[in-house]
Structures are given as structure tokens and as C-alpha cells.
Amino acid sequence: MLTRVAAGGLMLSSLFLSACSDEPKVEEKAAPYEAAQARDVISHYADLALAGYSDALAQARELQTTINTLLDSPNEENLAAARAAWRDARVPYMQTEVFRFGNSVVDEWEGQVNAWPLDEGLIDYVDDSYQAVMGNPGARANIIASESLTIGEERLDLTDLNADLLASLNELGGSEANVATGYHAIEFLLWGQDLNGTEAGAGERPATDFALGEEATGGNNERRRAYLQVVTDLLISDLETMVAVWQPEQENYRAELLADTPENGLRKMLFGMGSLSLGELAGERMKVALAAHSPEDEHDCFSDNTHFSHFYNGKGIQNVYLGEYQQVNGETLSGPSLSDLVAANDPAVDSQLKQAFEASEAALQALVDSANTGVHFDQLIAPGNAQGAATVNAAIDSLVTQTTGIEKAALVLNIQALNPDTADHEF
Amino acid sequence: MRSAIVLGCVVLLAACSNPRQEVTSQLAQQVLLPAHQQWHDRNAALVQAVKGFCEGDAERASVAQAFMASQQGWSYLQPLMVGPLSEGNRSWQVQFYPDKRNMVAQQAEALLDSHDPLTQQALDGASVVVQGLTAFEYVLFDDKVDLQADKARYCPMLMGIAHHQQGLSGEVMALWEEAGGMLAQLTDFPNDRYASAEEALGGVLRVQITGVDVLKKKLGTPMGRLNQGVTQPYQAEAWRSRQSVASLQASLAGAQAVWERVRSLVSDGELAGKIDQAYAETRDKLEALPAPLFELVQDPANQPLLQDLYRSLDTLETLQQAELASDLGIQIGFNANDGD
Description:
- The structure holds 2 protein chains of 2 kinds.
- Helices cover 55% and strands 3% of the residues of chain A.
- By secondary structure, chain A is mainly alpha-helical.
- In chain A, helix 1 runs antiparallel to helix 2 and helix 8 (262-291) packs antiparallel against helix 9 (306-322).
- By secondary structure, chain B is an all-alpha fold.
- Chain B contains 14 helices and no strands.
- In chain B, helix 2 (19-54) crosses helix 10, helix 11 runs antiparallel to helix 12 (269-287) and helix 12 (269-287) packs antiparallel against helix 14.
- The relative contact order of chain B is 0.12.
- The interface between A and B is large, with 63 and 75 residues.
């Protein structure tokens, strides 16, 4: 919840602007698009989702292979390979997040896959300085070290670390910071806590935390190994579920979306873009961390991969507008787009929004460039780092501007109520 | 909808003045500016109260009273927050909420450990987390702080925050009142900010409507609506001072003050009546709450009472976000609450 971020400007319908002219002009505006044309755009949107989740699934399988190798031979080289595979797996996944807002089927599924920020003390050992969410009963549960767990009056048996058990521990005790599964749980297992605060450096878990026998570190290594294997398997099965949701010619969510009115489909596309752009990426993922100088609120806080997460989130937003997606194999999928519909009605609004996308991509690229010189997101937000704050603020501002452009595009398509949750009310 | 537009245009034509411009101007001069002035005055009183307490002339209770007045002045402003206060990171400096990880306590204590005594310069250069009312509330109300016994450590922080708030509200007032400032931008069109009175009114209403949405979240989150029904008392606003309900009341009053100026523009009389009623019901239910929200959410017996209040806020929000926005022809765009 953010009461803190100022939203962009407001576009007022022009209906009343001519109120004092000679003639009251009340005319039915021509529909801004043909229904069939809009359906093609929505169908291609579903194709983009299918391609994105399919890539995410393929990359997760690559990750699984490297994790199996790590568990077979727990050495630093294999750990580095698994970490690299995790980073690669994020590239397509972060581009799919734009599908989450607006499509409740994705939003409801997402918690088990990408919930964040987490109280990692739920999963494994943490440093004494670790600060959890106030009132979270699971904040130091350490599932890996415990064969049972008591929350309130309930006693949970943790002996067998299986997928159902771990999934059931998400939001344990009602706390959203209790995240037992998904990308960030795997990230924590591969990197460990980042104890460098806003200084240089990511998590430094040694490969020997997965070793058995004399060289083993960390303790409870059999359980840590089992945990890593189980959450990776679960990630794959969750991504398989989401790929199925977007397959054509099945009885699935995609079919429902295509059977709905074109206006509702376009609304969902635009709502996903604007929500990720403003409230989530600019707000939760950047502004909160920057204003509070809080590395705990950094998105990929264990791996320091946040710059790429943000960059590919931004890419996903423009993918939906442009009807494009560059697949992991290098080929670009392109087709009918929102941009086509907007440009046919108001080329200026379309070109302004495209410019806003270019500007935000450049601003997010600056986060990547900074990381490439060794200054990562958690250093940019350090107290007293004026240059870092300026870099992050420029990215935030570019996303705010971009969101205003998305609102204008929506108005061109006659969409006034953007939130699908409130759009169903009678007008 | 179509007949409403025709009617609206006919009414406008008859007078051939611009009622939207009049309403916008009234809102600016009679609601928005006075609300900012009230907040600024209360911050000045907060400085005086801290001075009295820290110099030994007054009791802690007088600081608590002044804090609550500042907090409520700020709450009243939130649904009215267009222009300078919503820009340049200023609102973040007033309050840090929600604070799930208790960063206020961590950062306040760390700053005090590293600066003995704390200087104004150090506070003004620190994180927003320690510059605002939430950190002030921590020092004044947290169980772990023994303020009476440790005035030497904590008084510079109280004084620093009070001065920081006064400086901030003074800066915002200047940006409202200067030539070509916010007040002028809400009364004289076109200008750099708004092309027309219609656009300005839209800007004010959008913030007000979002403000009611925020109230729902401020009530719903501690009730556990986002957490499978598990209540989250530490996510109640101003939980340390038990001021959550007073804050909600002040914000609702601010939103209502805007609504009362806008009512004359609504073409659908029945809708106006429904919105009036929704404000009255929500206000009555808030007044009837028997204890602070921090305590109420911890007893399951209070759930029906809180659910009932939540439903009233939900009705009010829907009436404004869907029906009022549609009646006035306003697009409700994205706000910071979309997303998680």
C-alpha cells in the first residue's frame, strides 16, 4: 500500500470543454476500432503471454539442470553456474509480469511463484542482525533446521519437505512476508543473505552449504538440498500450469478472455501496463527502497540482480503495447497491437507513448549500466548517494510519465475506467 | 449518461458562465489552501510544545496533544493533496507508513547512536523515515523509549522533526501563495499546470477519490483483509499513539469537504443524495467505534463492527469512483495503489 507516490496527471474527458460554444455538441463518437480488429490484438496479446511463459518454463528447466549438477558436486563453479541460470531464468519471467495485473488468474497464481519481499528466516539460517516484519510469527521459523513448527495453537509436521507442504507454508500465520517457494526462495538458497547493506556485494552463501560429509557448512544440509530440489520442481510445475492457461483452442482462461467483449480485453491489457509501470515498479520496487534507503525492499536483494529485473519489467510493458516480444531464441514475435489501434485514431498520442517507452528504457538501462560498473541498485539507494538517487529517480519519473501516456492511450480507445475490478459497475 | 450530458450542457449554456471554474476556485480558496494553512499552524504549535517540554516548562502530555493535532492536520490534507505537497518527495517526509519492518525504530536509533547530540543538519540530511511524524510518534509513544529519563538523547530528535515539519509546511505554503503558485494555478487558466478549470477540477477529484480508496486500505489491512483474515495490528496507521481512527475521521472529513463543493456540478440528484448518505453513514460508524483500531482488530468479536464500517467505505468509494467519475466525465487513471 502506498499513500506516498504521487500519481501522474489526469485527463479529463473533453465532453464538457465546449459547453459554452454556440451549439451543444452531443454526438456519438465513432467507435475507435472494429471489434474484429480489437479481437486480433487481444488474441496476439495471449500469444505474447504464451511465448513469455513458455520461455520462462524452458529457462526454469535449465535452472533445474544446473541445480542438479550443483547437488551432485557442490563446488563454487557449479554454484556459479546455477546462479547464472537463475539470472537467465528471470529474463523472460520478468517480461511476463505485465500479464499479472488485470488478469486475476495470473495474480492469484503469482504468490507461489514470485512473492516478495520475504522474511527469509522462515526458510533457513539468518544473521542475528536480521530484521523481520513486526508481528510475523514465522519470521525465524527456519524450516530447514526444524522438523516441526508451532504457530499459535497449531503444530505443523515438517519432517517431509514436499511441494504441498512448502506451498502451504506461504503466507503462514497470515503474513505475506512468509514466502516458502518461488524464484526468491530459490534465490535465497543460491545466494544467502546479502549482509552488505547498501555497500558493494551480494549474498555469499558457500557451495559447501549443499555439501555432505566433512566439508559441509551451514548445518541440516540434507534438508537444504531437499528444499532446493523441491522448490525448483514446484516452480517448473507452476510455470507449466501458466503455459496451459494461455494455450490456444483449449477450455482455459485464454478462451474466456477472447470470448469477453473487446473493450474488457483491451482494458485488461492497459490496466496491466499501467499498474506495473506506476504502483508496482516505480512505487513498490523503487520508490520505497530509495526513500527509506532500505535494501530489504530491493527486489532481488540476495543476488543483486535488481537492475535486470526492473529493466525486463519495463520491457514487458512496452511489449504489450507494441505487440512484440523477443524470445529467448532471439526471434521476435510481432503482430496486431494496441499501438496500431491508438495510431489509427490519434497518431500523436501513439508516438508520444512510444517516445515515453524509449525514455523509460534508457532510464532503466542506466540502472543496468551502473551495475555493470560495479554499482548495484542497493548501492544507488544508499544514504548520501546523491548521484545514485538521481539515477533511480530518473527511472521513477520516466515511468510516471509513461503511465500518463498509457492513460491517454486508453482515452483514445474510449476506456475511462481502467481498473477491471471497478469497471463492472453500471455506468 | 447521454441525457445527463445534454442536460449539463443546457444548464451551462443558460448561464454561459463556467460553474466548473467557480467550483475549482472555491475549492482552492476555501478548502485546499485553508487545509494547508491549518497543517502549517499545527506544525508551528508542535515546535512550541516540544520546546516547552524539553526546556522543562511543560508535561509530555502537551507534546502528545500537539503531535495528534499535527497528525490530524496531515490526515485531513491527504485526500486534498494536489500540487507541491504531492511532489518532490515532500509527502514522504511527513509520514512513513506502512512500516512493516519497523524501520522507524531501527533508523531513529541508528541516527541517534551516530550523532550525539543529534543536530538539525544531520536530521535534515537523513532518510525520510526519521524526518516525519512516524519517527516523532516512535520517540513519544514507543514502549522501548524512556523519554522522561533520556531527554538528552531524544529531545534533539523531537525538536529536529518538529522544525523539519515546520520548514516543510512553510515551503509548501510559499509554493501555494507565491505569484503564479498553486493557488493561482487553480484560479487562473490556462497555466503551466492546467490547461483549463476542467482539467484542474479533474486533478482535485482524482486525488480525492484515490484518498477514499486509501482509507479502505488503511482499515482493511489491519483487519487482515490482505492476510487471509489474520489481523495485522502493527499495520494500523499511527498504532503507537492509537490514533488510527482519528486519522481516518480526519481524512474522511477532508474528502467530504471537497465533495460538498463539487455536489452542485452533479447532474444526477439521486446520486448526490446517495453520496451524502454514504459520507454520513461512514462518519457515524467511525464515531461509534469503541476503542482504538490497534485494539479492536485483536478481538474477533469486533469483526462484524469493522466489516460493517468497511462496507460503508466500499460503498462510498464505488459511488465516487464509478458513478461520480462517470457523471462528471472524469477518467480515473492509475494510482499508486494499483499493483500489490
